Amino acid sequence: MSKKEVIFILLNGFADWEGAYISICLNWGVKPGSPVKYTVKTLSISKEPVISIGGFKVLPDYGINDMPDDYAGLVLIGGMSWRSPEALQIVPLVEKAIKDKKLVAGICDASFFLGVHGFLNHVQHTSNGLEYIKQAGDKYIGEANYINKQAVRDGNIVTANGTAALDFCREVLYALDADTPENIEESYQYYTNGLSPK
Question: Domains in the chain and their CATH numbers?
């Protein structure tokens, strides 16, 4: 069985940690030895290297002009560039993904980006606080659907605040049906509580 691609969108100044748990669970398995249905790819505006907040340099697999049509979803990793003019070039990719009923997941300032462009108005969602996302401007009219939780999944749309990398991972895994609910929960508890729980 060929693995479907999950495409992580990384802009310069992306937050290293916000996609780390998802990528390992998708690319290697939710638990060691469990089936692997997906492979992780990266995309940026171009195929030039992008540098994370922590200094990791990533060479994207795709630029916006050579992205494949056949993929399972987009994961927008937060960071310092989602309010920049270059981020506007991502809007058509998100529009198409939503229209095609693919996963669209955004964490931290990427959730703000989704709000700015009206993608969260009719789905339950979260971000870095209601007042934070209300700064998104006129296109954001989704206040009634805002939920003050670490991560929220509504169909194929997943959002999370910037402290919620593990919760974001769990909801993305559910949205993609990446493994059994039992394995997803066990993985979440393992990473949350560690080897030496208090």
Answer: 4-193 (3.40.50.880)
